[in-house]
Amino acid sequence: MYLRHWVLALAVFVAGIAGAARAEPSWVQIEAKPTQAEAEARASAWATTFPNVGGFVLGSGWYAVALGPFSQPEAVAQAELLRGEGMIPADAFVADEARFRSKFWPASAGGASLLAIAPINPGQPSENAVEARASESQLSAGERMALQEALQWQGYYSSGIDGAFGPGTRGSMAAWQAAIGAEQTGILTSAQRADLLARTEGERAALGLAEVRDDEAAISVMMPTAMVKFERYEPPFAVYSARDGSGVQVLLISQAGDQTTLFSLYDVMQSFEIVPLEGARERNASRFTLTGQNDHILSHTEVSLRNGLIKGFTLVWPASDAASMARVLKAMQDSFAPLGNSAMDTTLGEPLAVSTADLTTGLNVRTPTLSRSGFYLTATGAVLTTADAAASCGRVTVDGAVFDVAFVDAALGVAVLTPRVALAPQAVASFATASTRLETEVAVAGFPYADAISAPVLTFGRLAAMNGLAGETDLARLRLSALPGDAGGPVLDPSGAVLGVLLPTMSDGQQLLPDDIALARQAAALAPILAAQGFAPVASMGGTAMAPEDLARMARGLAVQVSCWN
After folding, report:
1. Helix (H) or strand (E) holding 190
2. Count of Cβ atoms closer than 10 Å to residue 355 Cβ
3. Are 495 and 546 in contact (CB under 8 A)?
4. How far apart, in whole angstroms, are the C-alpha atoms of residue 492 and residue 489?
5. Domain boundaries 129-207, CATH class
6. CATH 2.40.50.40 assigned to 210-358
7. pTM over 0.70
């Protein structure tokens, strides 16, 4: 700490000598005391930090302690610098020497000792800390900010770019010195400053980091132009593909829309192969972020909705380039700016279809190994589905969100999935407790067409029997035409109570069930097993038959799409 104070003091002293020679002197007044004895004590204390301390009698009869002399502009600059670095009181101010009367401190011997400091030779090949601080004091505000930007680029500095070398900047300088094997003084020598700037500029040049203004997307952003090149427009994307095998890709995202459009885009982008499954996802009413990583690539997407315009970007890079591309990502985030009040023309290039099933032009879509249906079992978001939707899956998602497999009962053919973050479903299943008459109309709420339709579809039929084809008492037989994606969906009675879970169509390769026959595991058989696992279902209180449109509305909050990924 003493070294840091002495270095800063020398810089103030050197600047003071030069300033006094050029203009009428000004001082930075740092304290005032009512008695000369108190002022002398404080001046002596300050002199351990600054070698250009002066003590003056004020017209009011008080005694001032000040730093100087400087020219008036230099005094203002030094006061701002020293206050910013916490070296002098926040209420220190610039005062003209005419404000002072006689000088009481230092004594002549003390004053002579100030001039005994060895002169600084800026041309020396290796600066010591005192010389480094003195040369640093000559930097302009722009040069100081350039050093902070370089430290930020190198990953050592995370605060504001303001040119004030406070504790955060000093700490980042010391960290960078440690990284290059230099003494950790927190004050860069001239050579170290040049090295830091050269390294940073070299890395930026290698990436070709430059502002790209895409007028069709109405977006301006810094982009690694040595790594990517414009390829095509595929609304809502401007596609910048890898240059010379760099493995880096950029999408600029631009479209008009509302929250529904934003949420649809969120779902679509998670199906792209450039957004790996592992990674954080976050979405609120006006923006979303997607991060993804696997053994080969990493990607980051951020998109926001403002004033009817959806704008954002995706950056994709090889996993081996994580360090340098993290800097590119930061530069893109800091520089990203929508232009004007327009979005990409939807007729430009090759437009993105609403359905992800139709995406065939360039942006490869990842598809799940298996798609099933399910429904909310508890108020915290646990989901009941089929066993095959959870077995041997590297990852399981429910409506795009990652869920964990709580348990699988292969004998019953069901599984329970739990969200990683507690949810508040719009509807929770209530299990029927009373017997249901045969030939009662029933409906299955499911996702028979996978991604083609984002809402559950109701398939109506009849309850044919309360046993399986071989007399199994825990099965129900339905006269209903279901598709594979419907499996796992709830079988609902007219009041909306759950009679059971639709099972996948079984085939041994020699027998095929008629298209209008489906099997479901009865709710009565599932309830005790679920309760034993801590997922006791809610019992239905009974009720009147619902109109089909009301049943469909309830099903939209109850049924979910379950995807198995490998």
Report:
1. helix 190-207
2. 14
3. yes
4. 9
5. mainly alpha
6. no
7. no
